[in-house]
């Protein structure tokens, strides 16, 4: 392992600093969808920022009380595992295989930290992935919502490019309603508009 | 004003959605320094993500108890005003003029939201700018720390490019100690190493 901060005598701090250097690689991991103005493919760091702000902005629409601090921290770190595992498209058949890779990746990346912090981040990441707690359900809303709005803003974006249909989108995003019925109502309307405007294909 | 979501009948939600589209412009606002691996100039969204994660990661080094939720939200939104005002280099003589521009910009960008949310974000942004509360002091640590580490990782980066000296850096960053004495100790060591390695000029 590369020691970037060999002049630091405190091993705990050195690990924390090396961790922040390592996760910076997210800025070079491109996602499938473009930022709202279509100027470039979004990277994982930009994505994590947007969905964290979305959670703060739209917290009033949660189906239940949530610990918003936990929701934000989950969202800020949820993609860190992609530093080694890379981004996998939501509609890819390789999503299950990807998950195994991500678990290995999580052990490795959070392993830069001492045991207490490693466990703290690992457990938050697992909680997010399992989508069982209120915080995880609400956090997931924004991870799903952002690309939908991106595809709307870019007149179909990845849907057109990868032949994604209305029903496929519904199947992969309907659990938004478990975190927020109001946001799910918005999404249904959004998808309807996308079909009407020809951004998203619907089988007759 | 462009109505991106004209099919949404709820004006509050429509404003929130337009706000998230508008602040996405931060992803096209380049900062002066490069990401840690030197691959590209960092944009404001990437920067906001990194310093938010840094605050979570290094919270144990705060000089006092902090409300970390507030610290993170401050950091996530602190640069949103640059959507209209642009980024100003820390060592620029135009920093005061820039601040007036930023206040106008803040009114405009948070004006997308209804009064309660506008006031919430405006007051958090002002609290951060004034650096008086514990949360603002601690949040500022990371806004200052990241470019220092970036310049270290890129063998001098913007310091060399703009002839920034050791004393100028000390003058502009020494208030890190108001938020975290331990991180300030690290920064002093880091700057010393930078001088020794020729990344940063020190007057004799």
UniProtKB/TrEMBL annotation, chains A, B:
Organism, as annotated: Sediminispirochaeta smaragdinae (strain DSM 11293 / JCM 15392 / SEBR 4228)
Gene3D superfamilies: Hypothetical protein af1432
A Pfam family hit: HD_3
SUPFAM superfamilies: HD-domain/PDEase-like
EC top class named in words: hydrolase
Ion transport as UniProt keyword: no
GO MF annotation: an example: 5'-deoxynucleotidase activity
Protein known as: 5'-deoxynucleotidase
């Amino acid at each position: 392992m590369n020691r970037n901060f060999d002049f630091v005598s405190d091993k705990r701090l050195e690990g924390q600093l090396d961790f922040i250097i390592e996760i910076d690689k997210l800025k070079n991991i491109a996602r499938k969808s473009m930022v709202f103005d279509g100027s470039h493919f979004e990277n994982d760091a930009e994505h994590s920022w947007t969905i964290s702000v979305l959670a703060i902005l739209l917290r009033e629409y949660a189906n239940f009380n949530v610990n918003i601090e936990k929701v934000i921290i989950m969202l800020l770190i949820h993609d860190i595992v992609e530093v080694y595992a890379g981004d996998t498209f939501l509609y890819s058949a390789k999503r299950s295989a990807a998950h195994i890779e991500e678990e290995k990746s999580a052990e490795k990346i959070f392993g830069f930290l001492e045991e207490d912090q490693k466990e703290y981040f690992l457990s938050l990441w697992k909680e997010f992935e399992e989508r069982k707690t209120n915080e995880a359900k609400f956090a997931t809303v924004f991870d799903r919502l952002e690309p939908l709005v991106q595809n709307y803003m870019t007149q179909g974006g990845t849907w057109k490019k990868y032949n994604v249909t209305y029903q496929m989108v519904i199947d992969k995003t309907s659990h938004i309603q478990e975190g927020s019925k109001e946001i799910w109502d918005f999404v249904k309307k959004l998808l309807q508009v996308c079909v009407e405007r020809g951004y998203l294909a619907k089988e007759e």
